[in-house]
Write a structure and sequence with these properties.
By secondary structure, this protein is an alpha/beta fold. The protein has one domain: NAD(P)-binding Rossmann-like Domain (Rossmann fold). It is built from 8 helices and 7 strands; from the N terminus they run βαβαβαβαβαβαβαα. A 7-stranded parallel beta sheet has the order 3-2-1-4-5-6-7, with helices on both faces. α3 (62-76) packs parallel to α4 (98-126), α4 (98-126) runs parallel beside α5 (147-167) and α7 (226-236) packs across α8.
């Protein structure tokens, strides 16, 4: 799908990946762009920069997503592209509190569910639309330091697969964004962590990958191509892969 002439919504757009996508969509000639975030001031700055609509939105609340969709449709018309991009970095293991688990689940999984509920049936009725859900390479592999992050990012990938299977033959395209380290506020101070082994890319580089993959209408958006090799190793010999991941985690524990 080409961006030109389309109406797009981008959540988590006050900074980082979302802001880079908003700028790139503007450059690609989008008809209208609605940006959403919980940070009012930087969100408004992005909206003004791109000449778009800024809607303060808590993606963990379905009512907020519904309001975001309604305001976008009122200003620009039917939504062609919904980038469900908001995320958090709140790492923890199985010992994490129920509140931490629920927060990760709400933002990394249910926000995508709420977006799909709000726009996918309308897109299918028109026979055209695109859902871009941000997950992580951790959703395809895992994050050796966080169960809360890995489990919910796996959930995000599984949901995107389901949505593609359910809506793909009805004109709705689905892609899932699975980067490793991207230079954003979420990764600040973690440049030397395991996530950056294959390099820390800039948000603008990631936006390039999104545009290219949407143009091909492929499911996986993989800015770090090494992830595909890691996936093949994982599925080719799961036990060997797990042994390697255990060695890697032990190494970082010793180094830490």
């Amino acid at each position: 799908m080409k961006i030109e002439g389309k109406v797009a919504v981008i959540t988590g757009a006050a900074s980082g990946i979302g802001r880079a996508l908003a700028r790139r969509f503007k450059a690609e000639g989008a008809k209208g762009i609605a940006v959403a975030d919980v940070q009012p001031a930087p969100l408004q700055a992005v909206a003004e920069e791109i000449g778009g609509l800024g809607v303060v939105t808590d993606v963990a609340k379905e009512a907020d997503i519904q309001r975001l969709v309604a305001e976008t449709e009122e200003q620009f018309g039917p939504i062609d592209i919904f980038c469900s991009n908001a995320g958090i970095a709140r790492y923890g293991g199985e010992e994490s509190s129920d509140e931490e688990w629920d927060l990760n689940w709400q933002i990394h999984v249910m926000a995508h569910v709420y977006a799909a509920r709000a726009v996918a049936p309308k897109m299918a009725a028109r026979g055209s639309g695109y859902l871009v859900n941000t997950a992580s390479a951790a959703g395809l592999l895992t994050h050796i330091h966080s169960a809360t992050y890995s489990v919910t990012k796996h959930g995000a990938v599984a949901l995107a697969e389901y949505l593609s299977i359910t809506y793909g033959n009805r004109g709705v395209r689905v892609s899932v964004l699975c980067p490793q380290a991207v230079r954003t506020a979420m990764t600040e101070g973690h440049e030397e962590s395991i996530a950056s082994v294959d390099g820390m890319i800039e948000p603008e580089q990631l936006a390039d990958s999104v545009i290219e993959t949407m143009d091909r209408e492929e499911f996986l958006i993989i800015p770090h191509q090494q992830v595909l090799d890691y996936m093949r190793r994982k599925t080719g010999d799961y036990d060997r892969w797990l042994k390697g991941m255990r060695r890697m985690k032990d190494h970082y524990v010793e180094e830490g």
